[in-house]
Amino acid sequence: MPKYEGAAILMQNNIKSIDFLKQITTPDYESFLKLPPLTPFSQDIIDYLNALSKEINQDSRLRQYPDVATFSFFCRKANIVQWKNKLFCDGIIKLGRGVVFHIAPSNVPVNFAFSLVTGLLSGNSNIVRVPSKKFNQITIIVDAINKLTKVPQYSNISNRIILVRYDRSNDATKEFSLNCDVRVIWGGDETINQIRKNPLPPRAFDITFADRYSFCAINADKFIYEKDPNKIANGFYNDTYLFDQNACTSPHLVVWIGTKSNVNKAQNVFWDNLYNIVKDKYRVQSVFAVDKITSFYNQAIHMQDIKLMSTEDNLLWR
Predict the structure, then answer these.
(1) Which of 111, 115, 125, 136 could covalently link to 102 via disulfide, CB atoms 3.0 to 4.6 Å apart?
(2) What is the strand order of the sheet 125-129 is part of?
């Protein structure tokens, strides 16, 4: 992925090194800040996102990353127009706020892209801090964005995107915060509290995504009659394993409801189906295997009546 250090970056303050994952296509940073807001769901934005979807779909790496494929599918013109029809009312004059500074979560690779699309669709220019971890999913999406940068037809939208990567000790968050109209903070309570130490302009405001957790309840009395249990298990896999159980939509607890005999039958069917899916799709990293056993030891210390179900490998821990 290219780094556009050329922007060392025309800011008034002396900021430490920032990796610019996308070239700044306005004459300078000040010009970017002065771009006028657009009408939400403008045709330029819809055309750009449709082109981005097509560009991503041409990438041979796509088949390895279903989360990127989902993002590409979301950006299709047909889907965006459908959202426009639901959310946008003709006859009411609306404009974007101006500059949105997105601080993406570090544990969900494609989240930065969805946050960016939301900023574009609402008519704004966008500065997006992507995760510092170099996920392959980020590389695929950024490569597609950079290819569209070279297409004059999409310059009106390309000009409104800055993608950056820097470590937490960097002063860039302070600088970007001072120059934005909206700050979007992902990552939980601790991240929100730290970033809020950086002041905003008087008329700016934060949109925050605080800590939250999900759990899954399965009615065993119904599940034992399920004709396609593999479909249920696959949905659970998508919610859980694509983000290594780190997303707020990933269940941290599975609750079984029903008679004891039906629960035992349902559990055997569900976990067997899930294991087969995981075995085919998932590649466990060593660091996550260590995290799992560390987490279990911690739970064993602080919780009563907890035990680890015996398994052949690290693919499925209960």
Answers:
(1) 115
(2) 19-20, 161-165, 125-129, 99-103, 182-185, 205-208
The residue whose two tokens read 């302009």 is 201
Distance CA 289, CA 278 (A): 14
Q: How far apart are CA 25 and CA 35, in angstroms?
A: 12
Rounded Cα–Cα distance for residues 129 and 104 (Å): 6
Non-local (6+) Cβ contacts of 275 within 8 A are 315, 316
Residue with tokens 């015996």: 310
pLDDT the model gives residue 1: 52
Rounded (to 5) percent helix, strand, coil in the chain: 45, 10, 40
Statement: residue 58 has pLDDT above 50: yes
Cα–Cα distance, 224 to 261 (Å, whole number):
10
Is the pLDDT at 292 greater than 90, yes or no?
Answer: no
- Point out which residues pair with 257 in neighbouring strands: 219
In DSSP notation, 118-157 reads HHHHTT-EEEEE--SS--HHHHHHHHHHHHHHT-GGGHHH
6 pLDDT more than 70: no
Contact at 8 Å (CB) between 98 and 124?
A: yes
Q: Are 104 and 186 in contact (CB under 8 A)?
A: yes
What's the sign of the alpha-carbon dihedral 67, 295, 130, 196? positive
Question: pLDDT band at 90, cuts 50/70/90?
Answer: low
End-to-end CA distance of the chain: 38
Model pTM score: 0.79
